[in-house]
Amino acid sequence: MPILNSIIDAHQEITAWRRDFHAHPELLYDVHRTAEKVAEQLESFGVDEVVTGIGRTGVVGVIRGRGTGPTIGLRADMDALPITEKSSASYASQNAGLMHACGHDGHTAMLLGAARYLAENRGLDSDVVVIFQPAEEGGAGGLAMVEDGLFERFGIDAVYGLHNLPGLPEGSFATCSGAIMASADEFEIEISAKGGHAAWPHNTVDPILVAGQVITALQSIVARNVDPLASAVVSVTQMHSGSAYNVIPSEATLRGTVRTLAPRTRDVVEERMNEIVTHIAAGFGATAKLNFRRGYPVTVNDPNQVAFACDVAASIVGEEKVERFMTPMMGGEDFAFMLERCPGSYLFIGNGDTSGLHTDEYDFNDSIIPIGVSYLVELARSATSHRR
Ligand code: NI
Q1: Do residues 183 and 340 touch, judged by C-beta distance below 8 A?
Q2: Count of domains in the chain?
């Protein structure tokens, strides 16, 4: 399908929506203004059912088809980040310290554009559900919507996510089957020892020395416990202890993140961390406790949905601009929770040569809007007209 004329005609208008969202970034579940605008727009397009408050501030719209084929879900994220924007654009953030640094403003605007096209042109064989989720950036808004009955309530048979990617050429797509994004967990290690005068270390148990040994030993998990053909990251990113030059403290705290591309690897890393932390501390006469908090699971694409979505993307931009076998990334993605409950796929669309995601100079590339909207429209039309 070439890019439709009516979508090209709507480019300026959708860009204006995108820039309005950009100027008014909101965090996590506090996407009240954004969600309200989205719901108002959906109503104004004549979307058949608009439901707010799913997953606290999530919004869902249903565009009814004739009711024979599978129901598909298209998902966008609405939240921004706690970053101070560096931009001289007229639509730069008006909310101090907040910024749309991941392009969720663009994702929301493109999905609205697709919803309008589908509501105006109709002809769908079955229902299309447009899903606008809050709190992608660490708040598990996707899980909140799932737990609010998203899939059962709207009878969704397959779900699709789209995310922009700086560095990927404008108008290109990239994805892969199976794991595409990593599980993202946090850990905290609390070491309790015995403080004292730094000149009499033999009367103390030094938690800083224990922390040093723990940090070093944690590196052996990826090197020696994880299958070399699997992937994992164990990063200690914080170390807190002590307050004086001449005092050995009694406690130390380490914090960090773990990323893996398979549930089994995730289990191995957590088990080994527990053993290392407990036993190294004991070996030095200290005690230590690991608090491992599981965050987003691995984002796993269904091979059939990936092939289908790539075929749709190729029909718009050409096969040479669709990378079907990209290398997975170690970042986390809340869409993982939706893919755990429902088959689907997550694709990247090229944002071109722009600043990276989560940087203060990033901006969504408005020139990709017609391609993104066309992809979503065609995905909806093809998916509902075939039994998959
Ligand atoms: Ni994002």
Answers
A1: no
A2: 2
